[in-house]
Design goal:
By secondary structure, the protein is mainly beta. The protein has 1 helix and 28 strands. A 4-stranded antiparallel beta sheet has the order 1-28-27-26, with no helix packed on it. It has a 4-stranded antiparallel beta sheet with strand order 2-3-4-5, with no helix packed on it. It has a 4-stranded antiparallel beta sheet with strand order 6-7-8-9, with no helix packed on it. The relative contact order is 0.11.
C-alpha cells in the first residue's frame, strides 16, 4: 500500500514538473536538436485539433536536410519529442519555399517540400516533392514528384490547404507557360482520396519567380490565392484571386494595393492572407509608395481594398505571416533588421488588430541582441498565440499573450 502510494505521489510530481509554472514569465523554448542547423518552422493542426510544429534540420556542412515535427497535447505548453520524416531526406531548407505538413480528417498526412532539381536547362531549378502517410504519420510512403511532365523542370514556392470535402489542394510556381512575358505560371492541383495530387492546371501567369504564394480556404469554402504578380513586365505588386466553385475556376487577378513597385529582381518575400467574419486581411512587403510591411483588408471578397497601412517603423521589415484567432482578432508577425552594438541583427515584430482591422497593439517580441527570423504563428485560444521562429540556427517557440 505504501509502495503504491509513493508511486502515485512520484508520478504526480513528475507530471507537474513537466508543465511550466503559471507564474514563470513566458519565453522561447528550443524545439530542435542541439548540434544541428535548424530552420523553416511551420505551424498547423492535426486531425485531432492538436497544434503541430514542423521544421528542417541539417548538418552545418550540408546543403540539404530532413523534415521533423512535434505535437502538443497541452495547447502549446510542451511538445512531443521530434519525429523525423525520413521520406523528406534531401529537402532544401528555404523559409520562403517553406516545407509544410497537412493533416487530413481521414488520418492521412501529407508532407510537401522542395529539393534541388539539378536540371541542365536551369542550374538553379527546384522540384516540389510530397510524401504521404495513411496512418497519422507512423509510416510514410516514398516521396513523389508533384509534377511528372518532363517539360516541367522548375517548380517551387508552393502552398497547401485542406478543402471542405477533406481533400488537399496545392499551388506552386512552374516554368511551363505559353507566354513570352517574364514570370512563372501558378499551377493548382487536388488530391484524390488517399492518393496523390492530380489534374494539375494553370490558374495564372507572369507570377514573380522568387516569392512565396498563399493558398487559403475560408470558412464558407471560398478558395483564395495571393501572390506577387509581374504587371506590365516591370511592376511587382501583390494580387488576389478567388474561386467560389471549389477550384473549378478562379476570378481575374486584382491588385490588393497599387504600389507600382518597379524592380528588376526578386524580393524573396511573399504575401500573407487570412479571413474572419468581416472579410479578408492581407499583409505584405513592398518598396513602392512606401517601404516595409503593410496591411489591407477587403469586405467584398477581394473586389476592393482599404487604404494600405504601415505595420512597422523598420523600413526593411519583411516576411509577414497573418492568422485569425478565436474571437476574430487578426495577428501579424514579421522580422525586421535592428542595429545592435555596431552590428545588424534581426528581431520579431507582432501586431494585433481588432476584427474590423484596427490596430490594437504593436510591439517587438524578441531582444535586439539575437538574430530571430522568419516567424510563423498559430492560434491557441482567444488570448494566446503560438509563435515559432528561427533563432541563430535553432527553431524555438513561444506562447504569447495577446
Amino acid at each position: 500500500m505504501k509502495r503504491n502510494l509513493l508511486y502515485i505521489v512520484v508520478t504526480l510530481l513528475g507530471m507537474v514538473s513537466c508543465r511550466p509554472k503559471e507564474n514563470v514569465p513566458a519565453g522561447a523554448v528550443v524545439l530542435s536538436h542541439g548540434g544541428k542547423d535548424a530552420s523553416c518552422p511551420y505551424i498547423t493542426k492535426d486531425a485531432k485539433g492538436r497544434t503541430v510544429i514542423s521544421w528542417v534540420e541539417k548538418d552545418s556542412t550540408a546543403d540539404t536536410g530532413v523534415m521533423l515535427y512535434a505535437v502538443s497535447n497541452d495547447n502549446g505548453h510542451t511538445f512531443s519529442s521530434p519525429m523525423e520524416i525520413a521520406a523528406t531526406k534531401g529537402v532544401y531548407p528555404h523559409a520562403e519555399n517553406l516545407p509544410k505538413l497537412l493533416f487530413r480528417p481521414d488520418g492521412s498526412v501529407i508532407a510537401l517540400f522542395g529539393v534541388e532539381q539539378h536540371d541542365p536547362r536551369n542550374k538553379y531549378a527546384g522540384k516540389v516533392m510530397y510524401a504521404i502517410s495513411v496512418d497519422s504519420g507512423r509510416v510514410w510512403g516514398a516521396p513523389q514528384s508533384l509534377v511528372t511532365d518532363t517539360a516541367g523542370y522548375d517548380q517551387r514556392y508552393f502552398d497547401m490547404a485542406l478543402l471542405p470535402g477533406g481533400q488537399a489542394a496545392a499551388i506552386w510556381l512552374d516554368n511551363r507557360k505559353d507566354t513570352k512575358a517574364e514570370g512563372s505560371t501558378l499551377y493548382w492541383a487536388v488530391t484524390a482520396d488517399q492518393g496523390g495530387f492530380q489534374a494539375a492546371k494553370p490558374i495564372a501567369q507572369t507570377v514573380c519567380q522568387c516569392c512565396r504564394t498563399r493558398l487559403y480556404v475560408a470558412g464558407n469554402g471560398d478558395i483564395h490565392v495571393a501572390y506577387r504578380d509581374i504587371i506590365n513586365d516591370s511592376i511587382r505588386d501583390m494580387v488576389h484571386q478567388v474561386s467560389v466553385d471549389g477550384g473549378q475556376s478562379f476570378s481575374e487577378p486584382v491588385r490588393i494595393s497599387a504600389d507600382n513597385w518597379v524592380v528588376n529582381g526578386c524580393p524573396h518575400t511573399g504575401p500573407a492572407l487570412t479571413a474572419n467574419r468581416y472579410g479578408l486581411h492581407f499583409a505584405w512587403f513592398t518598396m513602392g509608395n512606401g517601404q516595409g510591411i503593410f496591411y489591407t483588408a477587403s469586405i467584398d471578397n477581394g473586389k476592393t481594398y482599404t487604404q494600405k497601412e504601415s505595420l512597422s517603423k523598420a523600413p526593411m521589415a519583411k516576411h509577414p505571416q497573418i492568422v485569425t484567432i478565436p474571437g476574430d482578432r487578426v495577428v501579424i508577425v514579421w522580422d525586421e533588421p535592428v542595429k545592435w552594438q555596431g552590428d545588424f541583427r534581426s528581431r520579431i515584430g507582432i501586431a494585433v488588430k481588432s476584427p474590423e482591422g484596427q490596430t490594437m497593439t504593436s510591439r517587438t517580441l524578441t531582444a535586439d541582441s539575437i538574430k530571430a527570423t522568419y516567424p510563423v504563428a498559430g492560434a491557441l485560444d482567444s488570448k494566446t498565440l503560438l509563435v515559432a521562429y528561427t533563432r541563430q540556427g535553432e527553431v524555438v517557440y513561444e506562447r504569447v499573450a495577446i
